[in-house]
Amino acid sequence: xxxxxxxxxxxxxxxxxxxxxxxxxxxxxxxxxxxxxxxxxxxxxxxxxxxxxxxxxxxxxxxxxxxxxxxxxxxxxxxxxxxxxxxxxxxxxxxxxxxxxxxxxxxxxxxxxxxxxxxxxxxxxxxxxxxxxxxxxxxxxxxxxxxxxxxxxxxxxxxxxxxxxxxxxxxxxxxxxxxxxxxxxxxxxxxxxxxxxxxxxxxxxxxxxxxxxxxxxxxxxxxxxxxxxxxxxxxxxxxxxxxxxxxxxxxxxxxxxxxxxxxxxxxxxxxxxxxxxxxxxxxxxxxxxxxxxxxxxxxxxxxxxxxxxxxxxxxxxxxxxxxxxxxxxxxxxxxxxxxxxxxxxxxxxxxxxxxxxxxxxxxxxxxxxxxxxxxxxxxxxxxxxxxxxxxxxxxxxxxxxxxxxxxxxxxxxxxxxxxxxxxxxxxxxxxxxxxxxxxxxxxxxxxxxxxxxxxxxxxxxxxxxxxxxxxxxxxxxxxxxxxxxxxxxxxx
Length: 492
Hints:
This protein has helices spanning 5-30, 37-49, 51-61, 64-78, 99-112, 128-141, 160-171, 182-186, 191-200, 252-257, 272-288, 326-337, 353-364, 380-387, 390-396, 430-434, 447-462, 468-471, 476-488, and strands spanning 117-125, 145-150, 175-181, 204-208, 224-225, 228-232, 236-240, 261-262, 265-269, 310-318, 341-345, 349-350, 368-374, 399-403, 408-409, 413-416, 420-424, 428-429, 436-444, 464-466. The protein is of the alpha/beta class. The protein has 3 domains: 5-62; 68-105 and 115-314, Endonuclease Chain A (Endonuclease, Chain A); 326-488, Endonuclease, Chain A (2-Layer Sandwich), CATH 3.30.870.10. A hairpin with a 3-residue loop joins strand 16 (413-416) and strand 17 (420-424). Helix 5 packs antiparallel against helix 12.
């Protein structure tokens, strides 16, 4: 029997065209579902023009099924957020503030179940080693338990003081629980020994968002738990932007050029600690199924008035489990509240349409808007995607301050009218709004806002201001790469 190869080739060719167009037609109807327009456009362009790459990537990174599955698990854990909080007012009774801000606190509560309560700030720490030393000191004070949740963890010469404190705590009978992100931590030296060292030290630990297919642990590989927090005995807490790793991130190239990460952490006590603990309990339950319960909010017969060391504070957790994007909505609302000044510090500023509109609109209505970013971001794609927004920002009147390379400005904070502030782990990018589990602290009425503002003043002294004239002189190849990276940043 003789087979006409030309006929076979024609049939295969027609078959391929039919399949290709069928996939493209399906993609047009499936991809935009529950996805922001910029993300939909980016995915469709990739699928329609490069299907051999776009389709597998979408199945791995864009699958809504895995998001819904993670959301169901998160919804069960979120019930812990309500414990001890349902009978509290939306804001402390002694807080005197604008109605517009009260509505933002109410928004945060509706989205996360956490009210605004009082809390005492024991200072913002911007010295990298000093913050690690302080965390170690708090662990040394622990009598019942110490809960640690940090995105990147590495046991090195800088962090040894903290891990030794955890070991000492476990030795004296303190229950020590540790969470760290699997993908976020695995690329750093000592990762494969870290778990064994923690176990040997009597520390109970789990990976966050583990991706270990051969053990049946699969998920979207681009999800991260980006939170950084410590809770001791339900009475003291620390949170902020700093990971538990040397400030060089243990890379020889960074050490050679003197590159170091710059962060802030804050030490807290009072009722706000229960909210921080609720976030840890939620993530612990999500990863291992153990319900820890949550200590009730401390409610003395006399609640201290807001002012001085005591601030009004609200925790804003966010992540894929929260389908309403709490951090994006709270941040955007704060920007629209601004009347005089808006200062933004973020290592990764890649906003979506709504956040960009909030920033530009603030500048155009006369608010003094300042953006603090690294002169050169530590990630290639982010560096170009972020800088693709500089022209429109500068034209709107935003002042952009570049923290000098090779240093990396890793702090994430927001100051509005020197009355309201946010700090924590959340960047102002689409990853932090949709793919990363984050934790942010919204505050007003006490010293904490001033302490955060002082850090920003120091950043301004260290940075240089970028002008529109200078930016317009950049090479055309850079402009092209900015556009490409801006498009890829929308692939969620």
